[in-house]
Structure formats: structure tokens, C-alpha cells
Write a structure and sequence with these properties.
By secondary structure, this protein is of the alpha/beta class. It has one domain: Rossmann fold (3-Layer(aba) Sandwich), CATH 3.40.50. Helix content is 32%, strand content 25%. Strands 3-2-1-4-5-7-6 form a seven-stranded mixed sheet. α1 runs parallel beside α4. The radius of gyration is 19 Å and the shape is globular. The N and C termini lie far apart (66 Å). The structure holds S-adenosylmethionine. The site of S-adenosylmethionine has 19 residues, from α1. It comes from Carboxydothermus pertinax. This is Tellurite resistance methyltransferase TehB-like domain-containing protein. InterPro entries: SAM-dependent_MTases_sf, TehB-like_dom.
Length: 227
């Protein structure tokens, strides 16, 4: 859907994407035990009206909700205050988003198609550099699929991913889970289908190279302490 149309929708009182969290947001909790959630920094890219951002804040995460629509972010703040939690918001375009600081989790659902193909390598690289050691990427992208037609409300600034594309950006990370699926949708009140890919990847601190580096670091420390 075009971002102007979404902005118009977000100016209405009701929550277009509803206020219950998306199923994927609950999956994040599986990877981060309850006692480790407090103060973990999570960025929700394309947060819309904030249903998932608010869910994460209620679970104890420190949340930054990013979206190109100020009206969506205002509703996200309103929902947060209704639920008595705090979230930060940032009005930014994913195509030139500069992350204000390092985070533990990058979460994005329903928005990565607005990242123009020519900007993808650069922006995914930036997101990786801004993810802390041991951090997670939980990403959902609409993909090309031979059995699924382009959605009737697909906007001119939206670009599908290739079927193997999303996995390629985090390929040197630990892929904890990834799957492709087709689902029904009725956005814009026209029933249609989408194909999508989900990836949950971890910036693994324990790789063979990191172990070798750690080994030499410890050896040099012990030599240094004896001199
Ligand atoms: C399908 S909605 C998903 C909203 C939210 N993630 C959810 O699941 O409720 C896509 C969101 O992407 C936002 N968006 C569109 N273009 C964007 C861009 N270039 N940069 C950042 N966000 C964008 C829209 O404003 C919209 O809120």
C-alpha cells in the first residue's frame, strides 16, 4: 500500500492494523528469556500504529518505533500511554535510516518491501553494524512466488524480495529459524494472497574466528601481565 494512503488511514481514530500484537512478535520471546528482557534495546522498523512496539515495551524491552508516517507514530505513542508503557519514536525512511545507537534486536514486519533494491546492501549492512554482539534480527519480507500474484493494493514504492534474497543479507550469522509461507490478506478490503519469508538470525559471538581472536587475546594478556 502506498505510504500516502497509509498516512490517510492512520489519521483516523481506529487502529487499522488493530492493537493486538502480530504472531511473530510473540516468537521473539522464545529467544530472549524473561529475566534478560529488561533494558534490551529493540528497534521496530515500520512500526505503524505501534501494536508490536507496545507489546515489546510491556515485556520490558526498551523500544524505538521507527516509521515514515508521523500519524502512525502518534497513534503508537497514544497506545503506549493507554497501556502505561513508554516507547521512543523516530520518523525516518528505511532507505536512509541511520540508527541512533546500537541495539540488541532489529524487528521488522510488513515494511522491508519499501526498501528500494538498490539500497538494500547498504542498509542491511548498516543494520548489522548497529546490532550488538549476540543480538537478533527478526525480519519478515514479502517475496516473489510463482503461485502468488501481486496484491491489488501493492504500491508503486514497494518491491518484492527474491525467494532467496532475505536470507542472503545475514548469511554469515546463525540462522535460528527461517521459513516461507503463503497467507490470505484483506487489506484495502480486497481479498488476496501474499508470499512471505521470515528470518530469525543471531549475530553469533562464538565463531571459529572469534574463538581464535579470543585465544590470542588471552595469551597476550597473560604474557603482558608477567613482564
Ligand atoms: C504494513 S504496515 C506494517 C505496520 C506494523 N509493522 C504492523 O505490523 O502493524 C507498513 C508500515 O511501513 C511504513 N513505511 C512505508 N514506507 C516506509 C519507509 N520508506 N520507511 C519506513 N517506514 C515505511 C508505513 O507507514 C507502515 O506503517
Amino acid at each position: 500500500m502506498d505510504k500516502d494512503k497509509l498516512q490517510e488511514i492512520y489519521l483516523k481514530e481506529e487502529y487499522y492494523w488493530r492493537t493486538e500484537p502480530n504472531e511473530l512478535s510473540r516468537k521473539v520471546l522464545k529467544y530472549i528469556p524473561e529475566d534478560q528482557r529488561k533494558e534490551r534495546k529493540l528497534v521496530d522498523i515500520g512500526a505503524g500504529e505501534g501494536r508490536d512496539s507496545v507489546f515489546f515495551a510491556k515485556e520490558g524491552f526498551e523500544v524505538l518505533a521507527v516509521d515514515i508516517s508521523p500519524a502512525g507514530l502518534m497513534k503508537a505513542e497514544k497506545l503506549a500511554s493507554k497501556e502505561k508503557v513508554a516507547i521512543k519514536t523516530l520518523d525516518a525512511d528505511i532507505n536512509d535510516l541511520i540508527m541512533p545507537k546500537e541495539v540488541d534486536i532489529i524487528y521488522s514486519i510488513g515494511t522491508l518491501q519499501y526498501l528500494h533494491p538498490q539500497n538494500r546492501n547498504r542498509q542491511f549492512q548498516h543494520l548489522k553494524e548497529k546490532t550488538r554482539d549476540g543480538g537478533l534480527h527478526i525480519l519478515f519480507a514479502f517475496i516473489e512466488h510463482p503461485e502468488v500474484e501481486i496484491a491489488p493494493d501493492w504500491g508503486k514504492n514497494e518491491y518484492l524480495y527474491g525467494r532467496e534474497e532475505l536470507q542472503s543479507y545475514d548469511k554469515e550469522w546463525d540462522i535460528l529459524d527461517t521459513y516461507e509461507y503463503i497467507f490470505d490478506c484483506s487489506s484495502s478490503s480486497i481479498p488476496h494472497r501474499h508470499a512471505a519469508r521470515v528470518i530469525i538470525a543471531k549475530y553469533g559471538s562464538v565463531t571459529p574466528i572469534s574463538l581464535i581472536k579470543k585465544f590470542f587475546f588471552v595469551i597476550s594478556l597473560s604474557i603482558f601481565s608477567k613482564t
